[in-house]
Amino acid sequence: MSAIGRSIRRIEDRALLTGNGRFAADLNREHQLHMRVVRSPVAFGRLVEVDASDAADVPGVEAIWTAADIAELPQIDFRMTKITGMEPYRQWCLAKDYVRYVGEPVAVVFANSPYAAEDAAELVFCDIDEVDAHLEATAEPVAFMPETMPGLLTEPAVLHKSCGDLDAAFAEAAEVVELELKVGRHTGVPLETRGALAVHDAATDTVTMYGAAKVPHYNRGAIAAMLGLAIDRVHLSEGHVGGGFGIRGELYPEDVLTCHAARRLGRPVKWIEDRKEHLMAANHSRDQVYRMRAAIAPDGFLLGLDVTFITDQGAYVRTHGATVSDLSAALLPGPYVIPAYRVAGHIRLTNKTPAGTYRAPGRYESTFARERLMDAIAARVGIDRLEVRRRNLIPESRIPFDRGMDTLGTGVVYDSGRYHDLLARLEAHVGWEELAASIAERRAAGEMVGLGLGYFIEKSGLGPEDMVRMRVAPDGGIRIITGAASVGQGIETAMAQICADSLGVDTARIAIVHGQTSLIEKGMGAFASRVTVMTGSAIKIASEALIEAALDIGAKLFQVDRASVAYKAGEVRVASSDRAMSLAQLASAWAEQGGLAAEGTFRSDHMTYPYGIHLAQVRIDPGTCDVLVERYTVAYDIGRVINPMLVEGQIVGAVAQGLGGALYENFEYDEAGQPLATSFADYLMPTALEVPEVFTLVREDAPSPINPLGVKGAGEGGITAVGAAIASAVDDAAGRPGMVTRLPITPDRLHAWLA
Amino acid sequence: MTETRDITLDVNGKRHALSVEPRKNLADALRDDCGLTGTHVGCEHGVCGACTVLVDGRAVRSCLMFAVQAEGTAIETVEGLASEDGELHPLQQAFWDKHGLQCGFCTPGFLMLAVGALRENPEMTDVEIRELVSSNLCRCTGYQNILTAVRAAADVMRAGTNG
Ligand code: FES
Ligand code: FES
Known InterPro entries for this protein (chain B) (predicted)? Predict the structure, then answer.
């Protein structure tokens, strides 16, 4: 039986269930120092002086650094962006000249215990000449650092993309629809805060950082460059990771500081962030405003779309550079034809926490914008919300569909898709007619209930390449080393299934080693739903190479020619004979000659595009203006399913996060730029009472033609259209098309709209 | 150095002699002084429940209790759930079977929360289970499989005691 497509239990779970996980905070080294960060208490101001004299007197304090003590460390560089001109906006490890957000690292204290470090940090006094905080990204840009960098404004870049003839589209339009929409500021907020343990080996001048996650190889290179070390003098080692969702891949000031301190202070350095710090210092995300003008044909066909959007990226441009805006701009058109499209994406800075990516970056936001527009067109033309989508979806005959634009350095080409078919399947699956009738009935009886939907396209499998090494031990165990990373998504199990499937062996024999820069020289980590596609394909290729190697060895050992041996289910067998050897036997017999091993590399210049539809059913409580989600369905075509149970788990978890952003989570600031959501009492994440039962319709109708497995990444589509579907359903429940113009839909906002 | 106090904690039936500052919370004492890092700290302000342990059989947020207050009580943590020979507790088994965890950071807290509740009321209804599970946060699973796992474990445990 094929190992692909089966809901097998995860091989990674036992340690996690028994309290034997190894998360960053669980690691300790003899004589370690504890680092505590002193953070700016104000949003914007000239940094005059940092006085650490009282703090230095606290027993147990070993060192205190300010920017002057680490003058040799450069700014933190960008990871992937083609946009130039943003360099001056990069963050220093410790604030220099100015502080630009509450929570910005100003100094660090190293002490013998975390309690002493925290006591001392409270005594560090920051003398700051406060300036008025700039908090509205939609307002005209202001000076970034008025005195030290005069003339540099808080708009690091504006992105432009376009395709088709927009003027012709508007000339031809029967109707023009205009909308302004906003998505609030929220982010991944994994349950484990950030943390690291850096250890220096003086004999070899090598720094190892434990607790790294998501993109260990990239961050290793970046840290080595900042510390002025050769790349092989830095190692990153990933243990268990308490959730990723975008915020982990960042190279934060604290990561660099722990490594630098371990080397300079000659002792291991441990840093564990508290939740308050996390909410004001780890990357925020979303926070975009869209202004759209759409040219419409009489039947509701969208002829042309002109979009300007603004992304509030907070205080500095972090390693992701323009990634969120770039993805928003390129993927906004989604599954629709839209012959003419023009977009300008403004990256603006404010005195808030810097922002980066969060699960489905740029797609959650742009899907909300585009699907709001589809609903608005339906209302304007007077057609059903499903019908307007049917009329605009890209037909199968036009797949592969080249959007004529690029993102992240690769052309946007939808590799496979049966968009109308999936919509029809969802309608059948939920019994759309009866469902709509039952909702109408309840509404007639006075309830505020409604249905809403959002169609989306995701992207996954970003190249350029992934490489894995595979080796069979003499006991038959198969060890695969990959540069991929795990952020808790179950990659060990899924990767083992792919290998087991190709080799025809049991998954229990396979061990996956990931996230260790000392064991493999290359690796892209885990982001953008890339692991299943890229690493999975590399594993399939390596497995096939391993079979070839086994056949070569088998032929030699049996002294027959290559054509008379065949491989099946973990054995090499001589044709029409009972002579056979298992992988284990081949590996031991060949141990002296190098054993049984293979390598596989998968390269891809293009991404692959899964797609799906979210359908929400909500009820508004007219008394409290709470939105109660009664039922939620996600239809999602991911090409090929490796493990249905894990895919469903990803979808359901992502829906819950999406509901958080649609209804509850919001980083509010007061007018002085003080963050108001710095605890879980103010930053409201959904609990089991807010998340409804989520139904999934996972399909494999459009396998990807551009990788050997046919897979597309499944990790993000559960969140992509939540904002869109909930907004549509709330409109419907209120009987007011177009009412919801911003997220989250909090009770006070809804109350004002309903008034 | 700040003043410390000598205390003895009874954790999973084993006695640990510690010397702790009076302000040290129970979560930190379990993790740093007893070496039991299965109890996790997700917020330190009593909301997430990742630090849930049982104190005299009742679920407690160990970040909100001082270690010195726990002297003389019987503390249970996730490390004590599986039997000595490695057989998983029915709740651990159900979380595994039903995919009730992804990153696993919240898991010890949910396990201890549910162990305490099911011991007190083996007949929990689905509504009561949802109510119970809503007292802790999980950012990965969307709770669906946690609810299913607790339900399944409750059924197994009840069958075990009745039959
Ligand atoms: S760490 Fe105790 S409740 Fe969050
Ligand atoms: S499994 Fe990650 S927080 Fe619950």
Answer: 2Fe-2S-bd, 2Fe-2S-bd_dom_sf, 2Fe-2S_ferredoxin-like_sf, 2Fe-2S_ferredoxin-type, 2Fe2S_fd_BS, Beta-grasp_dom_sf, Diverse_Oxidoreductases
The ipTM (two decimal places) reads 0.97
A515: Cβ contacts below 8 Å, ≥ 6 apart: A212, A213, A216, A236, A237, A238, A484, A485, A486, A523, A525
- Count H helices and E strands in chain B, helices first: 5, 5
User: Per-domain residue ranges for chain A?
Assistant: 24-131+193-241+248-281, 367-460+607-754, 462-603
- The domains of chain B, with CATH numbers, are 5-80 (3.10.20.30), 90-158 (1.10.150.120)
DSSP letters, A355-396, are B---SSTTHHHHHHHHHHHHHHHHHHHT--HHHHHHHHBPPG
A222 residue type, one letter: A
Chain A positions in Cβ-Cβ contact with residue B21 (cut-off 8 Å) = 115
A367-460+607-754 and A462-603 share one fold:
yes
* A462-603 carries CATH number 3.30.365.10: yes
* Cβ neighbours for A265, distance < 8 A, ≥ 6 positions apart: A33, A62, A63, A110
A679 touches chain B (CB under 8 A): yes
The topology under which CATH files domain A24-131+193-241+248-281 is Aldehyde Oxidoreductase; domain 3 (3.90.1170)
Question: Nearest-CA residue of chain B relative to A244?
Answer: B103
What does pTM read for this prediction?
Answer: 0.96
Ligand 1, atom 3, residue with closest C-alpha: B46
pLDDT digits (tens, 9 = 90+) for A467-486: 899 999 999 999 999 877 76
Looking at the domain covering A367-460+607-754, what would its CATH class be? alpha beta
Q: What is the pLDDT of residues B20-66, one digit of tens each?
A: 999 999 999 999 999 999 999 999 999 999 999 999 999 999 999 99
Q: Which of A77-91, A245-259, A596-610, A729-743 has the highest mean pLDDT?
A: A729-743
CB A199 within 8 A of CB A262: yes
